[in-house]
Amino acid sequence: MKKKKTVFIEGQITSSFIGNAIAKHQTKTQIGAHNIFLGQVRKDKIEDKTVKAIDFSCYQEMADQKLDIIREETFEKYDLTCMHIYHSLGKVEVGEVCLFVFVSAPHRPQVYEATEYIVNRVKEEVPIFGKEIFEDASYQWKTNV
Protein backbone atom coordinates (compact mmCIF):
# COMPACT_ATOMS: atom_id res chain seq x y z
CA MET A 1 0.00 0.00 0.00
CA LYS A 2 1.22 3.46 -0.94
CA LYS A 3 2.16 5.82 1.89
CA LYS A 4 -0.42 8.57 2.38
CA LYS A 5 1.04 12.04 1.78
CA THR A 6 0.40 14.80 4.30
CA VAL A 7 -0.85 17.85 2.44
CA PHE A 8 -2.74 20.02 4.89
CA ILE A 9 -0.97 22.06 7.57
CA GLU A 10 -2.75 24.01 10.29
CA GLY A 11 -1.93 27.71 9.93
CA GLN A 12 0.90 29.21 7.93
CA ILE A 13 3.63 27.18 6.23
CA THR A 14 6.75 28.41 7.98
CA SER A 15 10.16 29.15 6.49
CA SER A 16 11.66 26.46 8.76
CA PHE A 17 9.22 23.87 7.35
CA ILE A 18 10.19 24.91 3.80
CA GLY A 19 13.90 24.86 4.67
CA ASN A 20 13.65 21.40 6.22
CA ALA A 21 11.85 20.08 3.14
CA ILE A 22 14.66 21.36 0.94
CA ALA A 23 17.40 20.01 3.24
CA LYS A 24 15.91 16.49 3.16
CA HIS A 25 16.58 16.33 -0.59
CA GLN A 26 20.34 16.96 -0.41
CA THR A 27 21.03 13.23 -0.12
CA LYS A 28 19.03 12.45 -3.28
CA THR A 29 21.95 12.82 -5.67
CA GLN A 30 20.02 11.81 -8.80
CA ILE A 31 18.22 15.17 -8.57
CA GLY A 32 19.67 17.98 -10.68
CA ALA A 33 16.92 20.57 -10.32
CA HIS A 34 14.34 21.76 -7.81
CA ASN A 35 11.57 24.29 -8.29
CA ILE A 36 9.44 25.84 -5.58
CA PHE A 37 6.19 27.78 -5.68
CA LEU A 38 5.13 29.69 -2.58
CA GLY A 39 1.64 31.15 -2.43
CA GLN A 40 1.38 34.02 0.03
CA VAL A 41 -1.68 35.82 1.41
CA ARG A 42 -1.93 39.24 -0.25
CA LYS A 43 -3.07 42.44 1.43
CA ASP A 44 -5.72 43.02 -1.23
CA LYS A 45 -7.96 46.05 -1.18
CA ILE A 46 -11.49 45.12 -2.20
CA GLU A 47 -13.79 48.10 -2.57
CA ASP A 48 -13.01 50.03 0.64
CA LYS A 49 -11.85 47.05 2.69
CA THR A 50 -8.36 45.62 3.23
CA VAL A 51 -7.69 41.89 3.61
CA LYS A 52 -5.93 41.02 6.86
CA ALA A 53 -6.06 37.19 6.68
CA ILE A 54 -7.63 34.23 4.91
CA ASP A 55 -9.32 31.40 6.78
CA PHE A 56 -8.90 28.23 4.69
CA SER A 57 -11.15 25.18 4.86
CA CYS A 58 -11.75 22.18 2.63
CA TYR A 59 -13.67 18.99 2.06
CA GLN A 60 -10.64 16.97 3.16
CA GLU A 61 -11.62 13.52 1.87
CA MET A 62 -12.54 14.93 -1.53
CA ALA A 63 -9.48 17.20 -1.56
CA ASP A 64 -7.16 14.30 -0.70
CA GLN A 65 -8.65 12.21 -3.52
CA LYS A 66 -8.24 15.03 -6.03
CA LEU A 67 -4.66 15.70 -4.88
CA ASP A 68 -3.82 11.99 -5.28
CA ILE A 69 -5.10 12.15 -8.87
CA ILE A 70 -3.11 15.32 -9.57
CA ARG A 71 0.00 13.70 -8.07
CA GLU A 72 -0.36 10.51 -10.15
CA GLU A 73 -1.11 12.36 -13.38
CA THR A 74 1.82 14.73 -12.82
CA PHE A 75 4.24 11.81 -12.37
CA GLU A 76 2.86 10.26 -15.58
CA LYS A 77 3.26 13.50 -17.52
CA TYR A 78 6.69 14.65 -16.27
CA ASP A 79 9.98 12.88 -15.47
CA LEU A 80 10.07 13.84 -11.79
CA THR A 81 12.00 12.43 -8.87
CA CYS A 82 9.89 14.02 -6.11
CA MET A 83 6.81 16.18 -5.75
CA HIS A 84 5.32 17.71 -2.62
CA ILE A 85 2.18 19.80 -2.20
CA TYR A 86 1.30 21.51 1.10
CA HIS A 87 -1.65 23.80 1.75
CA SER A 88 -2.71 25.66 4.86
CA LEU A 89 -5.96 25.16 6.72
CA GLY A 90 -7.24 27.67 9.23
CA LYS A 91 -6.27 31.31 9.54
CA VAL A 92 -3.24 32.61 7.63
CA GLU A 93 -2.28 36.26 8.01
CA VAL A 94 -1.26 38.65 5.22
CA GLY A 95 2.36 37.98 4.22
CA GLU A 96 2.33 34.36 5.40
CA VAL A 97 2.71 31.37 3.08
CA CYS A 98 -0.38 29.23 2.48
CA LEU A 99 0.69 27.05 -0.50
CA PHE A 100 4.02 25.30 -0.98
CA VAL A 101 4.71 23.20 -4.08
CA PHE A 102 8.16 21.58 -4.31
CA VAL A 103 9.18 19.63 -7.41
CA SER A 104 12.46 17.80 -8.12
CA ALA A 105 13.78 16.11 -11.26
CA PRO A 106 17.04 15.08 -12.92
CA HIS A 107 16.87 18.13 -15.25
CA ARG A 108 15.39 21.63 -14.98
CA PRO A 109 12.86 21.87 -17.86
CA GLN A 110 10.53 19.37 -16.18
CA VAL A 111 10.46 21.17 -12.84
CA TYR A 112 9.32 24.49 -14.33
CA GLU A 113 6.51 22.95 -16.37
CA ALA A 114 5.41 20.55 -13.64
CA THR A 115 5.25 23.27 -10.98
CA GLU A 116 2.95 25.46 -13.05
CA TYR A 117 0.83 22.45 -14.00
CA ILE A 118 0.41 21.42 -10.33
CA VAL A 119 -0.37 24.92 -9.03
CA ASN A 120 -2.96 25.53 -11.75
CA ARG A 121 -4.68 22.20 -11.11
CA VAL A 122 -4.72 22.70 -7.33
CA LYS A 123 -6.28 26.16 -7.73
CA GLU A 124 -8.84 24.97 -10.29
CA GLU A 125 -9.81 21.51 -9.06
CA VAL A 126 -9.19 20.97 -5.36
CA PRO A 127 -12.10 21.90 -3.04
CA ILE A 128 -10.18 24.32 -0.83
CA PHE A 129 -12.05 27.45 0.20
CA GLY A 130 -10.74 30.74 1.50
CA LYS A 131 -12.71 33.22 3.56
CA GLU A 132 -11.07 36.65 3.23
CA ILE A 133 -11.13 38.39 6.59
CA PHE A 134 -10.98 42.18 6.41
CA GLU A 135 -9.43 44.60 8.89
CA ASP A 136 -12.94 45.58 10.08
CA ALA A 137 -13.65 41.87 10.93
CA SER A 138 -16.14 41.45 8.08
CA TYR A 139 -15.45 38.71 5.54
CA GLN A 140 -16.27 37.30 2.11
CA TRP A 141 -15.54 34.04 0.32
CA LYS A 142 -12.49 34.32 -1.92
CA THR A 143 -12.56 33.69 -5.66
CA ASN A 144 -9.44 31.91 -6.99
CA VAL A 145 -7.48 33.72 -9.68
CATH superfamily heading? Molybdopterin biosynthesis MoaE subunit
CATH class membership:
Alpha Beta
What's the architecture, going by CATH?
Alpha-Beta Complex
Overall helicity = 25-40%
Task: Describe this structure as you would to a colleague.
- Helices cover 31% and strands 37% of the residues.
- It is α+β, with helices and mostly antiparallel strands and 145 residues long.
- The mean pLDDT is 93.
- A hairpin with a 4-residue loop joins strand 7 (128-134) and strand 8.
- It is elongated and about 50 Å long.
- It has one domain (8-141): Molybdopterin biosynthesis MoaE subunit (Aldehyde Oxidoreductase, domain 3, Alpha-Beta Complex), CATH 3.90.1170.
- Strands 1, 2, 3, 4, 5, 6, 7 and 8 form an eight-stranded mixed β-sheet that branches.
Condensed summary:
The chain has helices at 15-23, 60-77, 108-125, and strands at 8-10, 33-40, 45-46, 49-58, 82-93, 97-105, 128-134, 139-141. The protein has 145 residues and is α+β, with helices and mostly antiparallel strands.
Chain-wise SSE layout:
Layout: E1 8-10, H1 15-23, E2 33-40, E3 45-46, E4 49-58, H2 60-77, E5 82-93, E6 97-105, H3 108-125, E7 128-134, E8 139-141
Parallel strand pairs: 1-5
Antiparallel strand pairs: 2-6, 3-4, 4-5, 4-7, 5-6, 7-8
Task: Give descriptors for this structure.
about 140 residues, Aldehyde Oxidoreductase, domain 3, 3 helices
